[in-house]
Amino acid sequence: MSRIGKNPVPIPEKVSVEISGLTVKVKGPKGELERVLPDGVSVSQADNAVTVSPSDTSRRSRERHGLCRTLVANMVEGVSKGFSKKLEIIGVGYRAQVKGKKLVVSAGYSHPVEMDAPEGVTFAVENNTLVTVSGADKELVGNEAAKVRGIRPPEPYKGKGIKYQGERILRKAGKTGKK
Hints:
The protein is α+β, with helices and mostly antiparallel strands. It has 2 domains: 9-80, Ribosomal protein L6 (Outer Surface Protein A, domain 3, Alpha-Beta Complex); 83-164, Ribosomal protein L6 (Outer Surface Protein A, domain 3, Alpha-Beta Complex). The chain has 2 helices and 13 strands. The protein has a 4-stranded antiparallel sheet with strand order 11-12-7-13, with helices on one face. The chain has a 3-stranded antiparallel sheet with strand order 1-6-5. The termini are far apart. Part of the 50S ribosomal subunit. Belongs to the universal ribosomal protein uL6 family. One of its GO terms (biological process) is cytoplasmic translation. InterPro entries: Ribosomal_uL6-like, Ribosomal_uL6-like_a/b-dom_sf, Ribosomal_uL6_a/b-dom, Ribosomal_uL6_bac-type, Ribosomal_uL6_CS.
């Protein structure tokens, strides 16, 4: 049995959970999330907690036990607190701004790169160089942050590019001239 999976997921106040078969719907102040869990697990709600247990003793069920518990826990945390990722833009002339629901990034290309925010994700920019991607769905926030970073990943020689806040970039020594 999974050590993570056997812990119940506490449900805070102002959050409601509906379970029908393998479909879990979570509603809270930050939004509403719905997910269909994979086969091999059973989900139940008692008191103010959601419990995930394997439906049988097969290897597949035991593998998915901890995963499903974590997915439900992330849904509950997302609708109550929300998730966010911060990215730093480093480089001369590199900047970002928000126009409506679009993020416009100038990262050294001949044209600015525009990204639309999907449903449930918001972009915020501070000082033209700090981008915050936030929303209720942890997976969606992480994917959008990775797409923003993918516009201009940090390079190892000067460190220019878009990186996660707190990410360490291994720097390389440049070429040495002939002396």
